[in-house]
Write a structure and sequence with these properties.
Layout: H1 2-15, E1 20-23, E2 26-27, H2 28-31, E3 36-45, E4 48-57, E5 62-71, E6 76-85, E7 94-98, E8 100-104, E9 119-123, E10 135-139, E11 145-149, E12 162-166, E13 170-177, E14 182-188, E15 194-200, E16 204-205, E17 212-214, E18 217-224, H3 227-242, E19 254-258, H4 271-284, E20 290-293, E21 305-306, E22 309-310, H5 330-338, E23 342-347, E24 351-352, H6 357-361, E25 366-367, E26 383-385, H7 390-406, E27 411-414, H8 421-427, E28 432-433, H9 435-454, E29 459-462, H10 464-467, H11 472-475, H12 499-511, E30 519-522, H13 527-533, E31 537-540, H14 551-564, E32 571-574, E33 585-592, E34 597-604, E35 612-615, E36 625-630, E37 636-640, H15 641-646, E38 649-652, E39 658-666
Parallel strand pairs: 19-20, 19-31, 20-23, 23-27, 27-29, 30-31
Antiparallel strand pairs: 1-2, 1-7, 3-4, 4-5, 5-6, 6-17, 6-18, 7-16, 8-15, 9-10, 9-12, 11-14, 12-13, 13-18, 14-15, 16-28, 21-22, 24-26, 25-26, 32-33, 33-34, 34-39, 35-38, 36-37, 36-39
Helix pairs in contact: 4-5, 7-9, 8-9, 12-13
């Protein structure tokens, strides 16, 4: 694909432009011939080049800078636009700013080996439903179009900002890096071309003298061949260049001790209960490697009392509650570190509640909530901390950075339980629409970048109501340790008791196309639920003192997790269709080709009538011999790669529901 990527780069980054906007009531095509253009190229390393295009409107002082990176080892091109007013007065209005707006023809993707209509593959986001991350597809007939956007201002509230446009044996993957309100469109022209465009959903603003803003990051990956293989090229690019590396290494698998549902009231703990929990884990010999302290560790003096304790929900006072942590959270961290455990601590800096420290001391830093129902109590309002203000960003960096250091925290867990879009748009004047969003997103990314510079070994967890900020810019800085709030913790009315657990199988199925490292939690020591929620990061919200828990099984599950978690960095192959039906089989495979090993997960659901199922495994060497092991039972069998690929592996699960986690290795 090097020729395709090079030709595209020449056409759009060296000769033309991949973006569009309206300025002075004119389109970019009308404006560019009048503007000054300069291109430059520099080497980042042996596999990456940086291309910079600078476009200047000498009459108004507007400068557009397109910073692009091309990769030699992957068929990927990415770029971000920066717009700066170098003049002495406000610019005219810039509107409909789209960092990518191109007409794509099939011929640009290389020789066609088949003929067919293009199909757009994409996915739902995380809305705390059974269909979180569900794979979706739409065929593009001539004249048809698909418009996709997030909602509420969080980047995967409605859909993931990742797309695969498959077109007659070739295609293009597009990713958007924007932690705000993005939109994307795919329109099949009558000529057969496809107009592909994406960016911030609303842009209509002037720039003040000296002011600079940026656009969403856009990344394109070109491919020929099967779509599933293109997804694995994407996954490898994510692992090689995008997943954060605290201390210079890929994130280690996490198996954490957690006490949210297992504490009474929910989320309210103290240093004594935390230390006792860790001591009990050590006593029963369950090999965890992290302590997870979620919401509620801070001073909630303004909160509603729940069973005599302040509510964990009152965010905005960022200091440890000295009644429950007399010496700070650091005392719990020190206890964890002595046992060789990392510490995870929850924050939610952007949402501020009435009565808290920020609310009382810096009301000028807060964006007011949208107009509310007159019957709604002011006490339950949420305010948005205005990260578009550089002074606020500096305060957050100082405050959170200081707490991470003083409390000896290894993993900064950041939540965001608020849709910010209406707050942003209400602040903007009619000729500044989109500016607050841009500067808030920029400020938020600067917060993360500074914390990581201060602590190169710091890992950041991006949560946002469970997986609602999983865009490319976020995933370059953080990992989603809580992929969705739709966990197996609760039952849904009118559905089987396994519905949420089965949904988590579907969540792994859909999310694994795009994101290699993610996590969730468990409240039971149960093999079916464990297998259904198996992720690189798992948090056990189980009281280790419980007498009804099978501790031998618990220890075995921890060992299984440690053995297979590395496989999530490998290639991903779905072995069945996606389904939420209680009568279905569902299965997938993670393969580490360099090591000749991998993992298979298989599920027979509660209403499935078939006891046996045949799986045709992928990516195995036909002349290789493979040892396949049931990791729960410890039983192994040998097969040839040719047999597993052609005839298939028949699994037997006589009990329903039930699951298998199989490990395989080439001998």
């Amino acid at each position: 694909m090097e020729a395709v990527t090079s030709a595209w780069t020449e056409k759009y980054l060296k000769q033309g432009v991949p973006f569009s906007f309206i300025y002075r009531k004119k389109s970019l095509g009308e404006l560019l011939p009048e503007w000054e253009r300069k291109n430059s190229v520099e080497s980042i390393d042996e596999n990456r080049l940086k291309l910079t295009g600078r476009y200047t409107d000498l009459s108004t002082g507007l400068v557009i800078r397109c910073e692009a990176i091309t990769y030699r080892d992957f068929p990927v091109v990415e770029w971000t636009l920066y717009l700066k007013n170098t003049g002495k007065k406000d610019t005219p209005v810039i509107e409909n700013l789209l960092p990518v707006d191109i007409l794509l023809s099939r011929g640009e993707l290389g020789e066609a080996k088949s003929v067919g209509r293009p199909v757009l593959h994409y996915a739902k986001g995380s809305l705390c439903t059974a269909e979180d991350y569900r794979p979706l597809k739409k065929e593009l007939a001539p004249g048809s179009s698909v418009y996709i956007a997030t909602s509420g201002g969080r980047s995967c509230n409605a859909h993931l900002p990742f797309f695969n446009l498959e077109w007659s044996g070739a295609g293009i993957i597009m990713a958007i890096g924007w932690t705000g309100q993005w939109s994307a469109g795919f329109k099949r022209q009558r000529t057969g071309q496809i107009r592909l465009y994406a960016g911030q959903e609303l842009t209509h603003f002037r720039l003040n003298p000296g002011e600079e803003v940026r656009t969403p990051l856009i990344a394109l990956l070109f491919y020929q061949g099967e779509r599933i293989q293109s997804q694995n090229i994407w996954r490898r690019w994510m692992v090689t260049y995008n997943i954060p590396r605290p201390g210079g290494k890929l994130p280690e698998p996490i198996l954490a001790a957690f006490n949210w549902f297992s504490s009474i009231p929910y989320g309210i703990n103290n240093v004594y209960s935390v230390k006792a929990m860790l001591d009990e884990y050590e006593r029963i010999d369950v090999p965890i490697n992290a302590l997870w302290i979620d919401a509620g560790w801070y001073d909630c003096e303004a909160g509603i009392l729940v069973l005599g304790y302040p509510s964990w929900d009152f965010t905005g006072t960022w200091k440890p509650d000295r009644r429950r942590y007399p010496k700070g959270v650091r005392e719990a961290s020190e206890h964890a570190h002595k046992k060789g455990l990392k510490t995870i601590l929850w924050f939610e800096p952007e949402r501020v509640r009435p009565g808290t420290w920020l609310y009382k001391n810096h009301p000028e830093w807060l964006l007011n909530p949208p107009a509310r129902d007159k019957e709604q109590s002011h006490f339950f309002e949420n305010y948005l901390l205005n990260l578009s203000n550089p002074r606020v960003v500096r305060w957050v960096i100082k405050t959170i950075g200081g707490l991470l250091k003083s409390e000896e925290i290894d993993i900064y867990r950041e939540d965001f339980n608020l849709d910010p879009l209406l707050y942003w748009r209400a602040k903007d004047a009619p000729d500044r629409q989109g500016i607050t969003e841009i500067k808030h997103v920029t400020g938020h990314l600067a917060l993360w970048d500074t914390l990581r510079r201060q602590r190169p070994d710091l890992l950041i967890d991006v949560c946002a109501s469970g997986g609602r900020r999983n865009d490319l810019e976020s995933l370059r800085r953080a990992v989603p340790l809580w992929r969705t709030d739709y966990t197996g913790f609760l039952a849904d009315k009118g559905k089987t008791k396994y519905a949420r657990i089965n949904a988590n199988q579907g969540i792994t199925y859909g999310l694994s196309f795009w994101i290699p490292y993610f996590g969730t939690g468990l409240i039971n020591v149960d093999y079916y639920q464990f297998a259904s929620c198996l992720c690189p990061s798992l948090a056990f919200d189980v009281d280790p003192r419980r007498e009804d828990v099978d501790r031998e099984l618990w220890r075995k599950l921890a060992v299984i997790h440690r053995k297979v978690a590395r496989c999530f960095f490998g290639d991903y192959y779905p072995l069945t269709e996606y389904s939420l039906e209680p009568s279905a089989w569902i299965a997938w495979q993670f393969d580490l080709p360099e090591r000749g090993e991998g993992m298979i997960q298989v599920f027979r659901r509660e209403e499935n009538p078939e006891k046996k199922f045949c799986l045709k495994l992928q990516a195995l060497k036909a002349d290789g011999e493979y040892l396949i092991t049931d990791l729960l039972e410890g039983k192994s069998h040998r097969f040839s790669g040719r047999f597993l690929s052609k005839k298939g592996l028949t699994v037997s699960l006589p009990v329903r529901p039930s699951a298998l986690i199989l490990d395989y290795k080439q001998e």
